[in-house]
Write a structure and sequence with these properties.
With 412 residues, this protein is an alpha/beta fold. It is built from 13 helices and twelve strands. Helix 6 packs across helix 13 and helix 10 runs antiparallel to helix 13. Bound molecules: zinc ion.
Length: 412
């Protein structure tokens, strides 16, 4: 009990002081889970307040987990790995070094661009600028308010009447900075590109874009902890936040999510306990027919579609696979970036309560996808800023192919 109180005190102190977490000499371990005993021991670590936390939470046997370990825990962890014979590999030796190298050393840029990452106020400033510059094409929406009272915004781009609607949800996970950078890049291309294929895409569809859904978490990654994933609503045991992509009201907390508030994949106490997920669901239901719903994540280079809660194929599984295959082919053309496609449950793991499963299962959007952007783990969530443009270019190539194939199959 004493320890717990101390831990709560330590966490609250960090919050109150607003000190920025550092990860000097912190390692990232990739762990292969091979039996129930290992799984339980690794899940127990989710309650640890010793500076360790998961990048990939331990979900099930035969899957990988990834954990950040501070230097003072190296010996304990080595002992645990030896004792339980957990296969492990160090993937990052000094996490702080990656974070320090994420942004360019010198940037003379004074206007918004895509050679570095921006915080929420800068992104919203840029939205205001383009809204002012393109009033006939763009419409602003306030989707709702976050737990900490920030506005979640959306922009609709529409160049003509009676277009089919494509929805992009971005940055539901706070630390996935590449998602909002890519989203704003694509929106900017829709407005300014001379490429006829890009212009056709902007012309022939209405695009509703939420650049940052998890506004509190994203702000926290800039102010306090670069590695934050969840929302910022406090829960028990001194732990904060639920996983907003396990919080949707479709097979909520069935599988591949956690009831432990300290877990990185905590589903929340009930469906839509997180105001951000609730607000977005209401917004999606209010805008009329959505033909294609897309959620942007990083990392792993995957393109996934429903379902996450079961390996049973969705009714139009084959169509979604066919569209997925065309999309990943197009993504690989420019830089050879290699994506895999398939349904969530068989491509990564069973995971229920995600936004795309809800959009598909409840809001009845006929095709829905989750992108997991670059890379495959070398930098992970800390993708260097000089990859923003190449990542965005290949994703845009993918969207062109996706729309083409979806139209071919009469979804758009
Ligand atoms: Zn994510």
């Amino acid at each position: 009990m004493k320890l717990l109180t101390l831990a709560i005190f330590a966490v609250s102190f960090l919050l109150v002081s607003g000190e920025k977490a550092r990860f000097d000499d912190h390692r990232v371990y990739s762990l292969k889970i091979q039996n129930e005993k290992q799984l339980e021991a690794l899940q127990d670590l989710e309650n640890s307040q010793s500076g360790m936390f998961y990048l990939e939470a331990p979900i099930s046997i035969h899957k990988l987990a990834e954990i950040i370990v501070p230097p003072h825990k190296f010996a304990d962890m080595t002992e645990l790995f030896d004792k339980l014979e957990i296969e492990n590999r160090i993937t990052v030796n000094n996490l702080q070094k990656l974070i320090d190298e994420e942004q360019p050393k010198l940037s003379s840029r004074t206007t918004f661009g895509w050679d570095k990452y921006y915080d929420l106020p800068a992104i919203y400033n840029w939205l205001d600028e383009i809204l002012q510059e393109y009033p006939d094409i763009l419409t602003n929406y306030d989707v709702g308010t976050s737990y900490e009272n920030r506005t979640i915004r959306a922009v609709k781009l529409s160049k003509k009447k009676n277009n089919a609607t494509i929805f992009i949800e971005s940055t539901i996970h706070a630390r996935e900075w590449i998602t909002v950078a890519t989203t704003t890049y694509i929106l900017n291309e829709f407005l300014t590109s001379n490429d006829p294929e890009v212009q056709a895409l902007a012309e022939n569809y209405d695009w509703i874009i939420v650049p940052v859904l998890n506004v509190d978490g994203y702000s926290f990654t800039h102010s306090n902890n670069r590695m934050w994933r969840k929302t910022r609503q406090p829960y028990g045991s001194g732990c904060v936040g639920a996983d907003p992509n396990r919080n949707w009201d479709f097979h909520h907390n069935d599988v591949g999510s956690s009831s432990n508030p300290c877990s990185e994949i905590y589903a929340g106490p009930k469906p839509f306990s997180e105001p951000e997920a609730l607000a977005l669901s209401k917004f999606v239901e209010s805008i009329g027919k959505v033909n294609l719903y897309i959620s942007f994540h990083s990392y792993s280079q995957l393109l996934m579609f429903p379902y996450g809660h079961t390996t049973d194929p969705a009714p139009n599984h084959d169509d979604m696979l066919q569209i997925g295959e065309q999309t990943v082919d197009a993504i690989s053309e420019r830089y050879g970036t290699d994506y895999e496609t398939g349904d969530i449950a068989s491509t990564i793991y069973l995971a229920s309560g995600s936004s795309i499963d809800w959009a598909y299962g409840v809001a009845k959007v006929p095709i829905t996808y989750t992108f997991e952007f670059r890379d495959k783990g070398k930098n992970g969530f800390i993708l260097p800023a000089d990859q923003i443009i190449p990542n965005s270019e290949e994703v845009l190539d993918g969207l062109i192919a996706m729309a083409k194939e979806a139209k071919e199959l009469n979804y758009l």
